[in-house]
Amino acid sequence: MAYERKLMWVEIIGTIAIVASLLFVGLQIKQTQEIARATMRLEITTASQNVVDMAAENPGAFAVMQGERKPRDREEYWQAYVLTRAALRGYENQVYQYRQGFLDQSEWRGIRVEIRTRLAQPFIRARWEESREVFSAEFQAVVDEVESD
Length: 149
Fold this sequence. Notes:
By secondary structure, the protein is mainly α. The protein has one domain (36-148). 85% of the residues lie in helices and 0% in strands.
């Protein structure tokens, strides 16, 4: 009887240890997810800053991209083209990050508004129509969805 009682206590302690281990693993997974989200936000911020830097270095190209004027020459056109492509790739990355669960709903709503706003600009719209096939089907679907809202 005493042996069975000791065995029961060993089983109870073992079960508690297993539950505690699972809780610890769950906590580690949660912390890893939070670190991954923070890393994604940093990467998105860095990519966005790179586009802003490109625009600051090429104000004429940025003006063309924004639809404020026509390109003065072929070089300015290509600078605006590269700037537009970088911005679209950034949005494509944000769509991917959202789908992977790294962005929350409020961030996603803001991204959708920004995509809609950018695609309303004639130069960006034209470049999107010319090159949409080079972007992922998932991003193309999001753009179509955003435009139908």
